[in-house]
Write a structure and sequence with these properties.
Layout (H helix, E strand, L loop, with lengths): L1 E17 L12 E13 L10 H16 L3 E6 L10 H16 L3 E4 L4 E9 L6 E5 L13 E5 L5 E2 L9 H10 L13 H8 L1 E3 L8 E3 L1 H19 L4 E4 L5 E3 L3 H10 L5 E4 L2 E5 L4 H8 L11 E10 L15 E11 L2 H21 L5 E6 L2 H18 L3 E5 L8 E10 L5 E10 L2 H4 L4 E2 L5 E2 L2 E6 L4 H19 L14 E5 L5 H13 L4 E3 L6 H10 L4 E5 L9 E5 L4 E5 L1 H12 L20
Parallel strand pairs: 2-3, 3-4, 11-15, 17-18, 24-25, 24-26
Antiparallel strand pairs: 1-2, 1-5, 1-6, 7-8, 7-18, 9-10, 12-14, 13-14, 15-16, 16-23, 17-19, 19-20, 20-23, 21-22, 26-27, 27-28
């Protein structure tokens, strides 16, 4: 942005005719005159588009110059002649309006209209500071997420300084040291879970940007199963859920989008299209809020929710990206719950909180809580509710109080952390109380008297992102193996290949195919190792592929009903007939989602990834 400042005895303008992309004006704005004013000729440049704090930077410069010369009146005059690189009309108008709003809070401000041919006369005071030109650039983010203060809130309501808090809970202490004390925690070296990523075909896409994953068939199957499970978890929570689908890019010239993006932070992906600046969504918020703003909602229908597994984009630092955990493109099973009031929001927050703990328990682990609050006031207002959650789990929590002075759209956000195999606290699930976006995006419902009201919105990803859920499953399998000394195993419903039949020779292949038909018909993913390899190599590779049940078919199995089954979960060999095997698989699959194999059943037809 370029600004030419002139401290003037007087300045007046008059609209003559409409130019291209002119903003709409009423009769009062067709002319203007001010005495003793700081006149700011402003050119909004192309490189200013998408810069969320450029108006702040411009205002600070205007205020600095006005205070220096003692001006109480400000004229903002759009002037396209200070640069050859111009912003789009929409972006320029929005930036000028934002500067006008900020200036009006401290000065008598007049803004000349954008996109009109105008005549003007100006009388410069002529003192040494009466003419000044500046180039305005976006200032760095003043507040980062890791600023603010921390305290430990105990389940009995006491507060403890983090440096003075001690506990035998390894996950809590790892979280406290990393977040509050800024200490390096965890082991060094390559995490073991990456071996499973390589095993199942999860890797970085070499032809894309940094932080974008590719999934080969086994991994793609696991990803889709996790997505199915996320939907299943939501459908069983007891809400009226509306599943939606939407786009992944939103116009930063839209005030609601720009404001929300400014409060989100600085990890945004942006792109340009037809002269406009867009942000790639960092969650499903924009899409769901845009849709909800058009819905006719009655208080009788609430609480209700919108759900989408949304591709989301975070501009993570290239040196910090991690497969499945820290990505630039991730997939968020985003649920937004509309509540009539804070009492209802608390009730559903608590139910979601319980569901989050229920789901992580199914993985054989537990969560510790990092409770973010947007201010000290938000902490005090929600203190009793937070303590209620702590009492219910008999846990203490780490509280992060965000810096004062920013009007965040949320009040309370809980991040749920597990302890991974490297001794690090890792966030998986989350839930948040949003008090600002209903008004920002004009989401309303009709109360009992027919009056429009703004709901409280809960944001949650109960099992975390799809990728982080997979990370937690892999990490738990690795830890289980390390702690027991036995082979690690994946949940049966999540294992890409649940059964593998290994015929010892060509004459046993037909029997293997008959058994495969039974198991596949029962809904289980079954492979047949029909390759011309030694039996020992086939068995070894089945175990390396983490197959849940491995069955060898030889001469004996051609004549008797019982089959030798290697059960990876129990790490034992046992004799079972077909009915017993199917019963076992149904018990382990339980109510979890199911999909067929994403590759040929015969290993001879598969390729190497």
């Amino acid at each position: 942005m370029r600004i030419l400042f002139i401290h003037a005895d007087s300045m007046k303008y008059e609209v003559k005719s409409e130019a291209k992309n002119a903003e709409e004006i009423d009769e009062r704005r067709r002319s203007g005159a001010v005495n003793d004013a700081l006149v700011c000729f402003i050119t909004v440049e192309k490189e200013d588009e998408g810069k969320r704090r450029i108006a702040d930077a411009a205002f600070r410069n205007i205020k600095e110059v006005a205070d220096t010369v003692g001006a109480k009146n400000i004229v903002l005059y759009p002037y396209a002649h200070l640069s050859s690189s111009l912003a789009s009309a929409d972006n320029a108008i929005n930036v000028l309006r934002e500067i006008e709003q900020k200036c009006s809070s401290e000065f008598n401000t007049l803004r000349a209209p954008f996109g009109w041919y105008k005549s003007f006369t100006i009388s410069c005071k002529g003192h040494p500071l009466s003419e000044l030109a500046r180039t305005i650039v976006e200032e760095k983010e003043e507040r980062r997420r890791d600023e603010g203060s921390y305290l430990v809130l105990t389940k009995d309501g006491r507060t403890v300084e983090p440096a003075a808090y001690t506990s035998s809970n390894r996950c809590f202490m790892a979280m406290l040291k990393k977040e509050a004390l800024k200490e390096q925690v965890g082991n060094s070296g390559e995490p073991e879970y990456l071996k499973l990523c390589r095993k199942f075909g999860i890797e970085w896409e070499r032809m894309s940007d940094i932080g974008h994953e590719v999934y080969n068939p086994a991994a793609a199957l696991m990803f889709d199963l996790a997505s199915d499970y996320a939907r299943q978890v939501i459908s069983g929570i007891g809400l009226s859920v509306f599943s939606v689908k939407g786009t992944n890019m939103f116009n930063l010239s839209e005030p609601a989008v720009k404001e929300h993006a400014a409060l989100f932070g600085d990890r945004l992906y942006t792109l340009e299209s037809e002269g406009k600046e867009f942000v790639l969504r960092y969650a499903a918020c924009h899409q769901q809020f845009s849709m909800m703003s058009t819905w006719n909602i009655s208080y009788r229908q609430m609480p209700l929710a919108a759900f989408e597994i949304a591709d989301a984009y975070r501009y993570e630092q290239s040196g910090e990206t991690m497969l499945l955990f820290r990505l630039r493109r991730l997939n968020m099973p985003d649920l937004h719950v509309l509540c009539r009031n804070m009492e209802e929001a608390y009730a559903w927050f608590e139910r979601i909180h319980e569901k989050i703990y229920e789901e992580v328990a199914k993985l054989g682990t537990d969560y510790e809580m990092l409770v973010n609050v947007s201010s000290r006031k938000a902490l005090e207002e929600n203190r009793a509710f937070i303590i209620k959650l702590l009492e219910g789990k008999q846990k203490d929590c780490l509280v992060h109080i965000y810096p004062e002075g920013t009007n965040f759209y949320w009040t309370v956000n809980i991040e749920y952390h597990i302890l991974d195999d490297m001794g690090r606290a890792r966030e998986i699930g989350t839930v948040q109380i949003d008090t600002g976006n209903a008004r920002r995006f004009n989401i309303t419902y009709a109360d009992a008297s027919g009056k429009k009201q703004y709901p409280i919105i809960l944001h949650t990803a109960i099992i975390g992102t799809i990728e982080r859920f997979m990370y937690a499953v892999f990490d738990r399998a690795i830890q289980r193996s390390r702690l027991t000394g036995k082979p690690g195993f994946l949940p049966f419903w999540f294992t890409p290949e649940q059964v593998r039949l290994i015929p010892m020779g060509e004459k046993h292949l037909q029997r293997a195919r008959e058994l495969a038909f039974h198991f596949t018909s029962a809904g289980f993913r079954t492979g047949i190792d029909d390759r011309d390899l030694t039996l020992s190599k086939k068995v070894r590779e089945a175990k390396q592929d983490w197959v849940s049940l491995v069955i060898v078919i030889g001469d004996r199995e051609m004549e008797v009903s019982e089959l030798p089954v290697y059960d990876r979960e129990r790490d034992e060999q046992r004799q079972m007939n077909v009915e017993e095997i199917i019963k076992l698989m149904k018990e382990r699959a339980s109510v979890y989602p199911s999909r067929p194999l994403y590759m040929p059943a015969e290993l001879s037809k598969r390729v190497t990834f």
